[in-house]
Amino acid sequence: MEDGAGVSTRPGFLSRIFLHNLSAKFAALPMVITVLVVFVGCTIWTIYYSFTNSKLLPTGKFIGFDQYERLFATSRWNVSVWNLLAYGAMSLVFTLVIGFILAVLIDQKVRFESAFRTIMLYPFALSFIVTGLVWQWIMNPTLGLQGTMRKLGWDWFSFDWIANPKMVLFALLIAGLWHGTGFCMVLMLAGLRGVDEEVWKAARVDGIPTWRTYLSIVLPMMRGVLVTAVVIIGSGIVRLYDLVVALTNGGPGISSEVPAKYVFNYMFSGGNIGQGLAGATMMLLTVLIIMIPWAYLEFGGKGRR
């Protein structure tokens, strides 16, 4: 028996749907519960208590947007947001550009390609804590590169960026690029290897320069890879914390403070959970601003084509 839309209405129809691949549904059940409880539940908890005056424990009363007003009236938060915007813009652009250039170079069928890929990707296998400590030693004004060069007689050499408030963001940028550029290169290389060889043959027949082929033909064909790279890099920038702690600890002063460190300090050191959760909610909003357009481009737009 079928209704007007041609869908079966027999009593056993719905039961067959729910019983179909029952073992797979049971296997996925822990993941579904984890998502609902841990991610969705904790997200709701975070947002709710950001509207309270909770201090050491989440037991405060509802106070509306007072925590958010205080948040944006705090110079430390504003500095951290500006630092993240400046660092994020530079990191996103340079990671994509350098990663793409490295991918293009390796795509030229060079010798020892596997070795080069491994070397470039190796820093990504390290944690940000290790990366931060390594670059802290390198940039240490006394014991690092500056001290070494001055001991060799080059007294004019200066590389004290982690102690210079005007240059400390560039120190973070160098360490971040060293850590993440290899991963971006691998994504771009996978996109380049997915381009049909006939595209290159047609471009050569038409006399299109190689650089123009990459910019005008290849890059548009790699839209999916580019969007994925932007989302991964962007979400990592918003969550930037451990690299800052290991390399500069937010200093000198608060010149390299970032929102994640602000949230952590207020929740676990400052004894103000409400203020920390307000900052965390703003970080969540930023991640959603990045993720929703990506989800729309990847999934929402395909149904209309």
The CATH architecture would be: Orthogonal Bundle
- Cα(first) to Cα(last) distance is 34 Å
CATH topology (fold) name: MetI-like fold
Radius of gyration: 25 Å
Number of domains: 1
Strands, count: 0
Q: Strand count, sense and closure of the main sheet?
A: none
Label this structure with key terms.
mainly alpha, MetI-like fold, 305 residues, single chain, 14 helices
What report would you give on this structure?
The chain has 305 residues and is mainly alpha-helical. It has a single domain (74-304), classed as Orthogonal Bundle (MetI-like fold). The chain has helices at residues 11-19, 22-49, 66-73, 75-106, 113-125, 128-139, 145-151, 168-193, 197-205, 210-221, 223-238, 242-247, 259-269, 273-300. Helix 9 runs antiparallel to helix 10. The two termini are 34 Å apart. The mean pLDDT is 85.
How are the secondary structure elements laid out?
Elements (H helix, E strand, L loop, with lengths): L10 H9 L2 H28 L16 H8 L1 H32 L6 H13 L2 H12 L5 H7 L16 H26 L3 H9 L4 H12 L1 H16 L3 H6 L11 H11 L3 H28 L5
Helix pairs in contact: 2-14, 3-14, 4-8, 4-11, 5-8, 6-8, 8-11, 9-10, 11-14, 13-14
Short synopsis of the structure:
By secondary structure, the protein is mainly alpha-helical.
